[in-house]
Amino acid sequence: MAPVSTTKTGQPLDRQALDSMLRRRLFYTPSFEPYGGVSGLYDYGPPGCALQANIVDIWRKHFVLEEDMLEVDCTMLTPHEVLKTSGHVDKFADWMCKDPKTGEIFRADHLVEEVLEARLKGDKEARGQKVEEKEDADAKKKKKKVKDIKVLKLDDNVVKEYEEILAKVLTMHRQELFEQLME
Fold first, then answer.
1. Which residue from 13, 66, 72, 129 has the fewest beta carbons nearer than 10 Å?
2. Which Gene3D superfamilies match (predicted)?
3. CA–CA separation, 51 and 46 (whole Å)
4. The predicted structure's pLDDT at residue 134
């Protein structure tokens, strides 16, 4: 059950009333509203612009000034011709798979990658080699797909095959990923 949102006084939050108030006070309005609007596009009024500017200012102070990152400003829309030329229209797909027991959904290439890396880690441990943990900036965001790592020495040919698969897993087509998932 999803948690119930409340106001600061503990009253249940009425989303429709909040949305209505924000629109009346011109925080935002759907883009092209007089012509029926466009789903997902919004225009900001004076208070919305001020709020957005404050958020960007805080973001800029943290990332650009404190973290020494560089700021760029790019277009948010990409023409169809660019996506077609780059191959994204014809070839881009993130194949997904669902765990029948838990119902969790994973990217197929990430699942294959994590399982093979876990098996190779187990092989290294079985051979008495030091296993280095990779520091991943997105580790907290990642779902853990491999629950237990079995310490098992693999045949050298199997290790080589796993390393070759890992080298090309991100470029595999649907059928190749399906075959890897079935193994």
1. 72
2. Bira Bifunctional Protein, Domain 2 (3.30.930.10)
3. 9
4. 63
